[in-house]
Amino acid sequence: THSTSTSLEFNARLLGGKLYGVGTILREDFANHNVVTVRHAEWDLEGRVSIVELLRGSGAGISGRDTGPGEQGERGVSAPAVALVNVYAVNGTSAPYRSPENGQTVGTRHDHKIPFHSKLRDECLQLEKRGFDVVVAGDLNVARGQLDGHPNLRTWPKQHCINRADFNLKFFSKDDNNRADAHVGQDDPNRGEPSWQGVDVFRALRGRERKYTYHPRGESEWGSSCDRVDLIVASENLYQNGRVEDTDILDSPQERGTSDHVPLWVKLSLGGSDTCKAGMME
């Protein structure tokens, strides 16, 4: 088990005084043979991002830990390595956001989502530059479009729409946004900023199917008010090469348990006969 948390005085506590962070549970035999390192993102001062860098897959076995992401394992040519990025993204609200360095108020949590999107996108681009295929999984705190909110998509205050368009344009291609019926706004808020060009694996494999990951505890009946805000997003190369094999959202009261989110999972091919089934739950 690997976890991140923050000891920062500001922005770090939820209602009731609980600290937030993310945890990654790795099966021991998988970790011993496949994991190079587990690290936090250096720019993340709030314990929101954990990164697992895997070895490059090589069919029936995996070569030693000194094999880098762009190198060949001892069993021959193999698929690129995968980096798993576990995320608990900023929840956009009108509450003040305080500088982690000095505690001064610098806008709202709505405002803070936009630079968070940029830093997370840049982390994904840097991982790909190093030779990794990337999978981002977690509570992204964004419902991408009309398919992802029931009975309606949240559009007020307007900052929800601004942040939604910012997220969709920074993380997805035009084709993926069209497939997901994602909101990108009338004006491009990125002004030529780079896009990661990721693939929303649920929409890619399951089309316009309506399943949701967030079900508030106070809803009058199951499914009466819900959103798909927990996502699994893969590098386009990983998807185009057929290495994203399956995915689903376990959308039921039983799977929600004591949380207000349900689990979701993806099955990946690491190369040859090796597979990885990754899931997440808040």
Strand content range: 25-35%
Distance between the first and last residues' Cα: 15 Å
**Count of the domains:** 1
Number of helices: 7
CATH class: Alpha Beta
The largest pleated sheet is described as: 6 strands, mixed
Order of helices and strands: EEHEEEEEHEEHHEHEEHEHEE
Low-confidence residue ranges: 58-68, 70-77
Structural class by helix and strand composition: alpha+beta
Mean pLDDT: 87
Rounded to an integer in angstroms, the radius of gyration calculated over CA atoms is 19 Å
Give the strand line-up of the largest sheet.
Answer: 3-4-5-8-12-10
In CATH, the topology is named Deoxyribonuclease I, Chain A
List the helices and strands and how they pair.
Blueprint: E1 2-4, E2 22-24, H1 28-34, E3 35-40, E4 49-54, E5 82-88, E6 96-98, E7 105-108, H2 109-129, E8 133-139, E9 149-150, H3 159-171, H4 174-179, E10 199-200, H5 201-206, E11 226-227, E12 230-234, H6 236-240, E13 244-249, H7 253-256, E14 264-271, E15 274-280
Parallel strand pairs: 5-8
Antiparallel strand pairs: 1-2, 3-4, 4-5, 6-7, 8-12, 9-11, 10-12, 13-14, 14-15
Write a short abstract of this structure:
With 282 residues, the protein is of the alpha+beta class.
What does this structure look like?
This protein has 282 residues and is of the alpha+beta class. It has one domain (28-57, 78-268): Deoxyribonuclease I, Chain A (4-Layer Sandwich), CATH 3.60.10.10. Helix content is 22%, strand content 25%. The chain is built from 7 helices and 15 strands. It has helices at 28-34, 109-129, 159-171, 174-179, 201-206, 236-240, 253-256; strands spanning 2-4, 22-24, 35-40, 49-54, 82-88, 96-98, 105-108, 133-139, 149-150, 199-200, 226-227, 230-234, 244-249, 264-271, 274-280. The strands form 5 sheets. The chain has a 6-stranded mixed sheet with strand order 3-4-5-8-12-10. The chain has a 3-stranded antiparallel sheet with strand order 13-14-15. A hairpin with a 2-residue loop joins strand 14 and strand 15 (274-280). It is globular, with a radius of gyration of 19 Å. The model is unreliable at 58-68 and 70-77 (pLDDT under 50).
